[in-house]
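Work package 3, deliverable 3.1, input record:
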Amino acid sequence: MSFFNVENLTIKFGGLTAVDRVNLHVDEGEIVGLIGPNGAGKTTVFNLITGVYMPDTGSITFKGTNLVNMKPNQIAERGIVRTFQNIRLFKGLTVYDNIRTAGHLRIPYSFVHSLLHTGLYERREKECRENADKLLGMVGLLDRKDEISASLPYGMQRRVEIARALALKPSLLLLDEPAAGMNPQECVELIDFIRKVKNEFSTTILIIEHHMDVIMNICERMYVLNFGKLLTEGTPSEIQNDPKVIEAYLGEEQEDVED
Amino acid sequence: MSSGFLKRLGALVVQVLVVWGIATYFKQSLPAYPIGILTVFCINAILALSWNLVAGFTGQFSMGHAGFMAIGAYTSALLMMKAGWPFLPSLIAGGTLSGFAGFLIGFPSLRLVGDYLSVVTLGFQYIITAILNNTVKLTGGGLGLAGVPFKSTLPVTAVILVITMWLITNLVHSKHGRSFVSVKEDEIAARSVGIDTTTYKIMAFVISSFFAGIGGALIGHYMMYLHPDIFNYQKTVEVISMVILGGIGSLTGSIAGAFGITLLPEVFRNLATLFGSWGLAAAGAFVKKGWTVFYAIMFLLIMLTRPQGLIGRKELTWESIGKIRLFKKLQKKEV
């Protein structure tokens, strides 16, 4: 039984086949990259995996269960948690509350306990607060936990979003362009950070990224998408030297001359 | 059982007793007029808290709260009058039936957002009014329902307000409360962290309509008379304006807003009488006839200068009162 397996995944928007018969698999403990030029369908793949879109055909299996037809929250409950390309925090809430909101699944207590603030409520909330503190300490935002999340700088918002995803203790973390808008120095920090996340949470990571230095550095294996189709698969060095990939990113040599 | 829970429960009991004591004292020593205002304020505050939960915290803009109030009011009144139930079970039955209606109306809210949901809930309120108008045998229809037992004394309503506030505050400060807010903040993000937004929306509607039903029942037991027109959309708008005035998403704001909206018409009414007694008959008549204009202008000014409401999204605590600039200055002077 494989850890995470996508087979023959296809979705059409009108006449456009955004994702076309994509196959990919991720083994437990791996960091796998998903790259491709703009519009290749990377984020659509994420949306399909997390249940935002329903695939037309194909299957997505995670630890042996089929995720197709599940709601996004059910998929998150099963341990697949994502971040968003254009950061989706609970903007009006503090950093701390963002994390605690996400932790709600891992702190079981029922409605009656919420209404009466019982002893069970108290213990579980304490766990939740401690966990949030731990996560914020890890992403280095403990001193800014009471700030409204929308008021933080971009890079920090990214880290809040990752911490929020980690609050669910995911077994598969999907990162959608975590380095977007970051400078080279921040990218280096991000690489360390993602490695740290992987080790401390023993989570598996599937990552979409445009920054080649980031993805080449941390990924053990990667997939290249182009026009919704899987172009190739391989280790970073294989991908870097693959003429098909170079063509997808830079175009054919002839066209360049004509331009 | 932990000591923390018992402590909080003890604090609630103390609060209830203190409020009961003060309210009973007021009831015996004050004239009927201010007692009436205070009672209406307590009922309004319950209604404002109820609407705030579903709209302010969960972001589902219900325009049909008067419908929930009507269900609670008629259920409680009829149970007492026709079935001979005692007050408390009737009241809770009113709230429960209203909560059930909230459960039903919660379903369209799963597919509809924003304006569409508002229109559906508004339609629900009109359906309730139409049903009440046409079930003459049971509810008296357009003739109204007279002889509802008077039960909403100041101590009763004040204590129910304290308990409502306690429950809703508890709820807001829990994982369920945070999930409500996450639905309002960003539904897609909420689902991505495993929050079942569907369940939480329905839950918010059920709880909110339960308390709206309680508030509606108290209206009936205060006025001793019910008529479908009491629960028209203007009643909803009144409750909404309390919440917006106080600050959407703030519980203490709802209470402050309820106080303001209850008091203001009375202030203008007294102002009119006062002008009259000073011999400024024209001014008195002007205020009496045109107070709604002032009311509207005041509202506009508040919305222009403080669109987040008087208190905003924060909560009014003793600590925060101490932080207000005016009081800080006073404290410094004392030093």
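The beta strands of chain B are 145-146, 225-226.
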